[in-house]
Write a structure and sequence with these properties.
Layout: E1 9-16, E2 20-30, E3 33-43, H1 46-53, H2 58-77, E4 83-87, H3 89-92, H4 97-108, E5 113-114, H5 117-135, E6 145-151, E7 156-162, E8 165-172, H6 176-180, H7 185-189, H8 193-205, H9 209-213, E9 217-223, H10 225-233, E10 244-247, H11 248-256, H12 263-270, H13 274-294, E11 298-302, H14 306-319, H15 323-341, H16 346-362, H17 370-382, H18 394-403, H19 412-423, H20 435-438, H21 442-460, E12 471-477, E13 482-488, H22 494-511, E14 514-520
Parallel strand pairs: 1-4, 4-5, 6-9, 9-11, 13-14
Antiparallel strand pairs: 1-2, 2-3, 6-7, 7-8, 10-11, 12-13
Helix pairs in contact: 2-4, 5-14, 8-13, 11-13, 12-13, 15-17, 16-17, 16-21, 17-19, 18-19, 19-21, 21-22
Length: 524
């Protein structure tokens, strides 16, 4: 799988995290040829401050800004003008988030992107999956599953890959620092604390235990500095840039050797700083609980970090790498798994997805991007889930189901786009009179209007839910400003034509194209 770019591309990633700030400079030729040219980083305790006080002090914000100015100077020294500044839990969780972003902009001129938890986990999964894909781990026997476990300071991501697709993806607000901050310093010093935190973690993850046990998990894949450091403590030498296989029994023996894992014991045994032990202890206990529940055969630790995942995704997007399409297909299949839980009509939904895709591809020159096409597919698959709750107001129920779910690979803003398309999929039109639409920015509103116009016509083509129309042809005549839809069927489709023509006016108002219905001679 190759996707070359014309010349090597250089860019930088600045990351403000809960326990570390860093700047990384990369040179990208392809996904298999991404080189780290320079990385500067420093350990910080910002996350502890946020989880303790729910905000960052102005002294801390000033410290962040001073470091950022130094990072920008390093980028300038390398002649790098293409870079991203990202913040994760430390900014995302702070109640004074707006003040933090404002001060960063005022003091440094930098616009920071705050990554929500699902997207943070997805970036790391993207990079991790690619590396394991290249090594063939994800192409193991069909009766073996791979569990990806990502632990951040504020959340845990659990993803299971089995038989060629992503079967389970759950994100839980249960990160390393978040867990510790639930207990006071005195409580953490108690002899009963290790047992209490283990039981707490088990209770929080218990709803997923049966789902994890439903798959024959061979590999438990752990990523990041914590996984590498803990595997080093267990006697597995850290190899530069390489995955490491750790026997599950070694992890169990390691945990039991503490006779109750605590921060103090971790500090005394390995002579590490307390703030580092505060991250490693809950991380280790989470690993242990997951091993007990999922019962993997082999643990694989990877050095891949969030910044590595972001850089791979950034390069892939810029070079239009075909691996992006593989990942999107995975996410669509995951949406299908979610939809099946709500007992949707699969034959109908597949038609709506397929018909809508034809509209999207025909309308590429009218503001329907590849990303819009991807969002359409997710919305089409999930458009009927509300009927599981109630036929009455089912679109409103579907909206709340989508908004209440973490949809892998989508940002929170993109999820709101999908939820609004689902909300208007059969009744009403996007309007600022509706609160959930009014609060969106104008770019997202325009995207929703286009996708609603498309999904309405696609659904009209199977208004009877009897799949009378086997196929369609969609053609745009640019000079005539007309879209021609040719339906191929021998059956009576009067209902489909009636409902289709009802929604043509809205489509015309959004795209500026007249719509013509044509009847094909034979079904395809």
């Amino acid at each position: 799988m190759k996707a070359a770019v014309k010349a090597p591309m250089r860019f930088g990633i600045i990351h403000v995290g809960a326990s570390r700030m860093s700047v990384s400079i990369f040179e990208y030729t392809s996904l298999v040829n991404l080189q780290l040219l320079e990385r500067a980083e420093r350990d910080v305790t910002f996350g502890e401050e946020v989880f303790r006080n729910h905000s960052l002090s102005f002294e801390t914000i000033d410290e962040i800004c001073r470091t950022l100015r130094g990072y920008v100077q390093l980028l300038k020294d390398y002649g790098i003008s293409d870079y991203q500044v990202v913040g994760t839990a430390v900014v995302r969780e702070a109640e004074n988030r707006r003040n933090i972003l404002d001060q960063i902009y005022v003091q440094t001129g930098l616009m920071m992107t705050v990554i929500d938890m699902p997207k943070e986990i997805y970036y790391k999964y993207f990079g991790l999956y690619y590396h394991l894909y290249q090594k063939g781990i994800t192409q193991q026997r069909s009766d073996e599953a791979v569990l990806f476990l990502d632990i951040t300071s504020g959340g845990v991501g659990i993803s299971i890959w089995y038989k060629g697709s992503l079967k389970l993806q759950e994100n839980i607000h249960l990160g390393s620092l978040r867990v510790l901050e639930l207990f006071s310093r005195n409580q953490r010093a108690s002899l009963s604390f290790p047992c209490a935190i283990h039981d707490y973690l088990h209770s929080m993850l218990a709803p997923l235990e049966d789902e994890m046990k439903a798959y024959p998990i061979r590999y438990l894949v752990l990523a990041g500095d914590e996984a590498q450091q803990l595997s080093g403590f267990m006697g597995y030498p850290v190899t530069n840039g390489q995955e490491q296989e750790v026997d599950v029994s070694v992890l169990t023996d390691f945990v039991e050797s503490f006779h109750g894992v605590s921060v103090t014991k971790m500090v005394n045994r390995y002579h590490i700083q307390e703030h580092r032990a505060n991250i490693l202890v809950p991380t280790l206990l989470l690993y242990h609980v997951i091993c007990q529940m999922a019962q993997p055969q082999i643990i694989v630790t990877s050095p891949l970090s969030l910044v590595d995942g972001i850089s791979l995704y950034y390069g892939a997007e810029r070079s239009h790498h075909p691996f992006l399409e593989i990942m999107r297909e995975q996410n669509v299949r995951l949406a299908w798994s979610m939809a099946r839980h709500y007992q949707i009509d699969e034959a109908y939904t597949k038609k709506i997805e397929r018909f809508g895709l034809q509209f999207c591809k025909a309308l590429e020159g009218h503001g329907v991007s590849a990303r819009s096409l991807y969002l359409y597919r997710i919305a089409a698959v999930l458009s009927e889930v509300g009927k599981f709750v109630s036929l009455r107001n089912n679109s409103e129920h579907a909206y709340h189901i989508v908004m209440g779910s973490d949809i892998f690979g989508l940002t929170d803003d993109e999820k709101r786009v999908v939820a609004n398309v689902v909300y208007y999929h059969y009744k009403g039109y996007p309007s600022d009179a509706d609160a959930q639409f009014r609060e969106l920015d104008e770019v997202d509103k325009r995207q929703i209007m286009k996708l609603v116009a498309i999904i309405r016509l696609a659904k009209d083509l199977d208004a009877s839910y009897e799949q009378k129309i086997q196929s369609i042809d969609v053609t745009v005549l640019e000079q005539e400003k007309k879209l021609i839809v040719t339906v191929n069927t021998k059956q009576n489709v009067f209902l489909e034509q009636l409902t289709f023509m009802r929604d043509v006016g809205y489509f015309n108002s959004v795209f500026g194209l007249a719509v013509e219905w044509k009847r094909g001679g034979e079904s395809k």
